[in-house]
Amino acid sequence: MRSRFDEQLASLHKELITMGALCENIIAMSAKSLVEGDMELAGKVSDYADVIDRKEREIEAMCMRLLLQQQPVARDLRTISSALKMVTDMERIGNNSWDIAEIVTMGHITAAHDKLDIQKMAVAVIRMVTDSIDAFVKNDKELARSVVEYDDVVDAHFDKIKGLLIGQLSALHSDKDTDTATDGEYILDLLMTAKYFERIGDHASNIAEWVLFSILGYHEN
What we know:
6 helices, Methane Monooxygenase Hydroxylase, Chain G, domain 1, mainly alpha, elongated, single chain
C-alpha cells in the first residue's frame, strides 16, 4: 500500500516539475516578446497560459484523489496540501505572464533602450520559479529559504525601473517637443510590465514558503 502511495507522490512531483517548466517557458516568452517587440510571439502566450490552466486542474485532481483514497497524515498530508497551494501560485504566474504579453500586443512599447533592466528582472523571476520547484522535489529547505530571500533582488529591480520611468514621466511635462500622450502610454505600459514581473516573483516566493511549510510543519514568518 505504501509503495503505491509513494508512486503516486512521485507522479505528483513529476507533474509539478512539468508545470514549473511551463511557467519558466511562459515567463521567457513574455519577456522575449517584450524586449523584441514581437507581437506574434506575444499572441501565442495566451495558448500557453491555457495549457498551464489545464495542468493546474490536473494536479488539483491528482491531489484530491490522494487525499481521498490514501488519507495521508503528518508530513504526507502537508506535502499534498502544499502542492495544492503551489499550483494556484503557478497558475497565477501564467496569468501574469499573459498580462505582460497582452500589454505588448497593444503596440505602445517600441523603444529598446529601457528594457534591459526588465529583461534582468525576468531572468531573476525565472530563477525563483525554478528553484522553488526544485526545493519542493528535493525537500530542500535551504534552497526554499534562498528563494524567499532572492525576492529582494526582484524588488530592487522593480524599484530601479519604477524610479527611472517616473523620472521619464516627469520630464515629459517639461519638454514641449515630445508627444506626451504617446510617450506616457509607453512609460506606463513598461511600468505595468515591471509590476507583473514583480508579482511573479511574489508568487515564486509563496511557492517556496509552502515548501518550507511542507518540510517544517509551520510557517517561518
